[in-house]
Amino acid sequence: MHNTELWQRVLAEVELNCSRASFNTWFQHTAIHTKEDGIVLISVPNSFAKEWLENKFNKFILKSLRSAASDVKDVKFIISSSPEHIKQRKKRAEEREVAPLDNQFDFNGVDKDTNLNTRYVFNDFVIGSSNELAHAAAISITKNLGTIYNPLFIYGEVGLGKTHLLQSIGNEVLKLDKTKKVKYVSSEKFTSELVQAIQNRGMDRFKEEYRKNDLLIIDDVQFLAGKDKTQEEFFHTFNSLYEKNKQIVISSDRPPKAIPTLEDRLRSRFEGGMIADIGYPDYETRLAILKNKTVKKQVSLSNEILEYIANSFQKNVRELEGALNKVIIQFRVSKHPVVLDDIKKILSPTMAAPKKNINIKHIIHAVAQFYGIQEKQLLIKTRKQEIVRPRQIIMYLLREEFKFSYPSIGSKIGGRDHTTVMHACEKIAEYLRKDDGLLEEINVIKKMIYNM
């Protein structure tokens, strides 16, 4: 059996028995270097991959090799890029050499026509259980532009990789076909350009600029909420592109149902395609992200240090990378080897920030902010539905999430009787059994409260 075929069999078995994040991180660019006298030498691209495979996958790889080739006695690893890896690096270098050195890009690598940053690519996006669906959908639409998952709506909290994934879509589409028209823009920039177009009587040009695209990517669409004119123009732009089978990709910090003051017709359009969320990365994904970053930055940190960082920063990829950057700076300026105790001292100010105790004011503030109403409106006596429901949600959260007593809730929310509070909590509990959209809204509000 040829070495390439043998290794492909092993990789197929490995892929079935480990997560996508591990497989993509540690087995990319590996190959059988030699197979002589029963000893299989596996080439790996860097020291981290070598260390990880030796410690975590050595026995599994050896078992897989032996099941495919009975003469295998042992397996060893060397740092030596595979021919395919070398070929890819050569190709990337050639592409850089022939790239036009004009004014197309700004100093940050952002293309002035598309607004895409060239450093955001799928290869650098670490896949885990928290983002696997969103990543798979993103890959699919690059190969089936406008015909599958249109629109693609990706949501998740700040710092989890939405922008990276969105821009990777745009860069991949242009890589596959440079003739495609691609536009990436934040909702705030879209609004700003619309206002300028109205002021300068340039609406025809504005409409043409956005409706000529094969792929339109709108980031942070939640900021369109409450802006009637912007929503109206975006609605017409959306329809124009959709009717021509042009691809639309949208991101938000929450699902469409949970965006307050968003027009129903836009919400309906968003929900008509594919909705995928990006959650908090699990431990394995966080560790893979750190490993990837150290390889790119050509820094060698021990597993102990990387595991400590991965355990300490669990909810935000930006914070995770920020912590790693602090450690790398210390590593580069230090005159002695960096150990775990040094890392703990460096990161302790970031980790030891005291958490605010949750009180009624925080809940009222979060609910008012989410629904776009004034806090004082939630405390006055009114039967307007746009006020009653948010007020009932405040009471429900105070009771179910924070275990306040009914009388204490009533006294704080406009001096209401405890029976009124009980009724409000029962109503919200009843709505939650029937309405998944309300459940999503309350989950977003909870996150806002805990992040204050």
Describe the SSE topology:
Blueprint: H1 3-16, H2 20-26, E1 31-36, E2 39-44, H3 47-68, E3 74-79, H4 83-98, H5 132-143, E4 152-155, H6 162-176, E5 182-186, H7 187-199, H8 203-211, E6 215-219, H9 228-243, E7 247-252, H10 264-270, E8 274-277, H11 283-296, H12 303-312, H13 317-333, H14 340-351, H15 360-371, H16 385-400, H17 406-412, H18 418-434, H19 436-450
Parallel strand pairs: 2-3, 4-7, 4-8, 5-6, 6-7
Antiparallel strand pairs: 1-2
Question: What would your notes on this structure say?
Answer:
The chain is of the alpha/beta class and 452 residues long. The chain folds into four domains: 83 residues, GMP Synthetase, Chain A, domain 3; 157 residues, P-loop containing nucleotide triphosphate hydrolases (Rossmann fold), CATH 3.40.50; 65 residues, Helicase, Ruva Protein, domain 3, CATH 1.10.8; 92 residues, Orthogonal Bundle (Chromosomal Replication Initiator Protein Dnaa, Chain: A), CATH 1.10.1750. The chain contains 19 helices and eight strands. A five-stranded parallel sheet has the order 5-6-7-4-8, sandwiched between helices. A three-stranded mixed sheet has the order 1-2-3. The longest helix is centred in the first third of the chain and has 22 residues. About 4% of the residues have low confidence. Pfam families: Bac_DnaA, Bac_DnaA_C, DnaA_N. InterPro entries: AAA+_ATPase, Chromosome_initiator_DnaA, Chromosome_initiator_DnaA-like, Chromosome_initiator_DnaA_CS, DnaA_C, DnaA_dom, DnaA_N_dom, DnaA_N_sf. Oligomerizes as a right-handed, spiral filament on DNA at oriC. It comes from Candidatus Azambacteria bacterium RIFCSPLOWO2_01_FULL_46_25.
